[in-house]
């Protein structure tokens, strides 16, 4: 369907979607007045439907039309004469309702709803019911023969007429236990005739005048004779529909159950998240405090070492100055005899001072770094990261290991290991150093061999390469832009090594 919809008139504010019972309109919430049954099986007052804003519909389906050439021509002629159809949307379920030529008033009347409205009015002591004849006074009795509700005046007139004298009249209050008190259903084409027959060809109820006019020669029968066949057909359809209702109810129950379970988990999981997060935060904070304590200990240790070295150097400097000043004074101001007398003491002192060993460089360095990616074990069951490192790699202490450092085979992978140490000769125990390796042919220095350096994160580096041609190669290994000394080679080979492939 191709359609040009206009805005739908909305339900009144606060009105819930869905049927509002058997007797009340879902739009106006009042008792049904001339209720119409929509194709979606929702019932709405005629006046309420007329207030809905319609939209135009153009039918371009033609799915069941004849596909022959004659059918195609007919379909083409039909499409040319198509006029936009008027439609509305069901105010309950938003289903599209194609209005018949007569508009809203041509929709099927919901007689069941009318009967329920009448029963509800009866339960209210007849309030709201008016006489079917005069449409003015309140109802007092009902003619069971005519199925008409009558006021006191019309009831008297009904009894005086010869044709209706013997009709059965029942007080309205005596009908409260009835399940059906509906009026006779009259033919919309012949309002004076009751619908008692059923046209099989047109599949709709008709009256006596219809079968001699518009439905002449159509097969028909009394409604009481065909109700079993058509009722059974509807029952079969209902029988096939009910399992779907049960399946949908079960599906909705499962969805509701899943939604409840989901809500329970949504409410429970935050507690787990908070417990985990709080524990993790506590572990991180404790690890942080340990790192800060470690940093403070390092500071104290380094400062104490520097202070001790400083005190020693200051004392040595004072001794040196005393010796120098005294000796200079002796040599410049003393007599020959005084110099000779004092010479033994001065020489001994100066010799001892000159033998004093001391480092001209600070005994500690300022190298303190934080490695956030380094694993630091577990704290309260949580794995934590981050370590403080004070070691600094010393290229002069680093060691190269592996026979492939000196010999390799053509077009075969070769490898060796770089072991990084600090100035004290201790293994670094961590990676992250700036390591550069180059393997260069002696005769083709502009064509170095591709090398790969793998950081093992423990102070060792795995170096691999593949020589392409036989020859002599020079291996350069640099850490912090300084050449590594291979202690197994002579001093002349400390910076380079020759490799025969």
From TrEMBL:
Entry annotated with the keyword Ligase: no
Entry GO MF terms: ubiquitin protein ligase activity; zinc ion binding
Filamin repeat residue intervals: 390-486
Annotated ranges, domain RING-type: 25-94
Keyword annotations: Coiled coil, Metal-binding, Repeat, Ubl conjugation pathway, Zinc, Zinc-finger
PANTHER family reported for this sequence: BONUS, ISOFORM C-RELATED, E3 UBIQUITIN-PROTEIN LIGASE TRIM45
Family recorded in the similarity comment: Belongs to the TRIM/RBCC family.
Protein name (record): RING-type E3 ubiquitin transferase
Organism: Tupaia chinensis
């Amino acid at each position: 369907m191709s359609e040009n919809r206009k805005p739908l008139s909305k339900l009144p504010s606060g009105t819930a979607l869905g049927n509002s019972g058997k007797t009340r309109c879902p739009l106006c919430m009042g008792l049904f007045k001339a209720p119409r049954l929509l194709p979606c099986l929702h019932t709405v007052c005629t006046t309420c439907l007329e207030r809905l804003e319609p939209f135009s519909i153009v039918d371009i389906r033609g799915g069941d039309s004849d596909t022959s050439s004659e059918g195609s021509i007919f379909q083409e002629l039909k499409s040319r004469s198509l006029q936009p159809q008027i439609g509305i949307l069901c105010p309950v379920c938003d289903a599209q309702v194609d209005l018949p030529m007569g508009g809203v008033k041509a929709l099927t009347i919901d007689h069941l709803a009318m009967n329920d409205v009448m029963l509800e009015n009866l339960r209210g002591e007849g309030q709201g019911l008016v006489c079917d004849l005069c449409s003015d006074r309140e109802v007092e009795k009902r003619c069971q023969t005519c199925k008409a509700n009558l006021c006191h005046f019309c009831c008297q007139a009904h009894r005086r007429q010869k044709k209706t004298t013997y009709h059965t009249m029942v007080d309205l209050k005596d009908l409260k236990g009835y399940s059906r008190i509906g009026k006779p259903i009259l033919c919309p084409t012949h309002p004076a005739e009751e619908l008692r027959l059923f046209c099989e060809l047109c599949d709709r109820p008709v009256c006596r005048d219809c079968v001699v006019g518009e439905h002449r020669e159509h097969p028909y029968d009394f409604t009481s004779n065909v109700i079993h066949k058509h009722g059974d057909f509807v029952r079969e359809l209902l029988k096939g529909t009910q399992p779907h209702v049960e399946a949908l109810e079960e599906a909705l129950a499962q969805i509701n159950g899943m939604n409840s379970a989901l809500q329970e988990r949504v409410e429970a999981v935050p507690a787990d998240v908070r417990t985990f997060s709080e524990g993790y935060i506590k572990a991180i904070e404790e690890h942080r405090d340990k790192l800060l304590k470690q940093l403070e200990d390092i500071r104290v240790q380094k400062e104490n070492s520097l202070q001790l070295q400083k005190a020693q150097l200051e004392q040595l400097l004072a001794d040196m100055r005393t010796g120098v000043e005294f000796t200079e004074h002796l040599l410049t101001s003393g007599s020959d005899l005084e110099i000779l007398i004092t010479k033994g003491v001065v020489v001994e002192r100066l010799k001892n001072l000159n033998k004093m060993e001391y480092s001209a460089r600070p005994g500690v360095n300022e190298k303190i770094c934080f490695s956030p990616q380094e694993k630091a074990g577990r704290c309260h069951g949580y794995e934590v990261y981050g370590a403080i490192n004070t070691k600094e790699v010393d290229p002069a202490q680093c060691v190269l290991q592996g026979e492939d450092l000196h010999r390799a085979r053509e077009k075969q992978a070769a490898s060796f290991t770089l072991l990084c140490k600090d100035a004290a000769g201790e293994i670094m125990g961590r990676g992250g150093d700036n390591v550069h390796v180059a393997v260069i042919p002696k005769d083709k220095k502009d064509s170095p061999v591709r090398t790969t350096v793998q950081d093992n994160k423990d102070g060792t580096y795995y170096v691999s390469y593949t020589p392409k041609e036989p020859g002599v190669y020079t291996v350069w290994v640099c850490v912090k832009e300084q050449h590594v000394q291979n202690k197994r080679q002579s001093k002349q080979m400390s910076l380079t090594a020759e490799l025969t492939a």
